[in-house]
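[Automated response] Your request has been received and processed.

Submitted sequence:
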Amino acid sequence: MSAGAVPTPALAGGARPAFAVVGVYGAAALLTGAALGATLWHGLAEPRTALAFGLLVVVGELARWGALPGEREPAPLGAAGALAYALLGENAGQRTTHGVLQTLAVVVAATLAGSVPHIAKGRGPALDHLVRRVLTVAFAAVCFQPLYNAGYTSAYLPGGSDGLPERFGKGPFYAVTLLLLLVLTALCDAVLAAVMVRARTRHPFGPLLRDELRALLHIGSAVCATGAVIALGVAVAGLWALPVFCVPLLLTQLSYRRYAAVRTTYRQTIASLARATEIAGYTPHGHARRVAELSRAVGRELGLSGPELTVLEYAALMHDIGQLSLVDPVPEGATALLPADEQRRIALLGGAVVRQTGVPAAVAVVVERQADPYREQPLSARIVRTVNAYDDLTGECASASGSPGGPLSGPLGALERLRLGTGHDYQPEVVESLARVLSRGGPAPGRVG
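Generated structure:
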């Protein structure tokens, strides 16, 4: 579609808040209100411990400086400190009594306090991040605190059951129990994140959950391990264990951000290379970016995730790079309007160029095969071909084909022309997925460009 072209109102879907998001926000608000109210009413139990863990969460939030857009956990030290406080059963051999509601109150207050400088700079934490922090800490505390303190309660209340230390001691089983609770908490957080993205984008839940679980294997695993180590260390050595066990996670955070920065630079380099066709006048301004964003949205709609989406994004950005080998530019860069043999020649030229850039070979394969009959293509090539054709057939490109204002012009007309080509050129499922994405107003703001 031409620069600035948008789906018509007939294709644009409503943007009303999803019921699931409202329910999640409501649950977090109720828990926060109950926790703060109960803590203000009864006062802080063990204020030194609460202050120490509160400061740890504040430091973790302050360490968000330098976080890259789209990071799943921008404050890993704060998350680890919050989880450690939720799973803290003893402090230097003395059983703790802070309970679930105080845990939530301290974590919420410390998170907000540590976010003040970021908010002042206009880079405050997203509301989803705060909501997930509240619910995951509540989940961990509810699972652990009553289970651990059951034995302590039974000393005062007849009929009480033994807690974890009384039943199993404080050996390896106790450490394994903490890790198991942290794994369950991480799974809870992944499900919450996937539900919230699903409610806003309507992408399939399965691939979204796979992306969240895959992210847990990186910085998420470090957060869980550090939370468990801090809780165990404080139980034995007291609050002096906090600064000792925070250093490894801070170093991990620094290394992870450097790695993420390298990947971001790599992606930006590919996007800049893809704009060469625009600078040379072969394709309209923004064409590669639009095709990449829309291809990524369609890929999610069809169940792609993780590395598959990355390959799709890179191939969509570079799908027209073969046009640089042409002597005479294609009018408006609309390769979808060319004969099939010419489309294949340009695709093969593009694949040869992509293989020289150092990107994964799978990207070059998608670029090379984007002009083949769809039954012979991998799914990513089918998506790129369909989305590229939609962009070519919409707006200025449709006008260049001699049908401005006619029944087959504009977004609706472009979709109809794609449906007419589903016998050979475009896979019907991809075309219908594209229609569903457009009906919701197009792709959400992505990572491209």
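Summary generated for your ticket: The mean pLDDT is 80. The first strand starts at residue 90 and ends at 91.
If you did not submit this request, please reply to this message.
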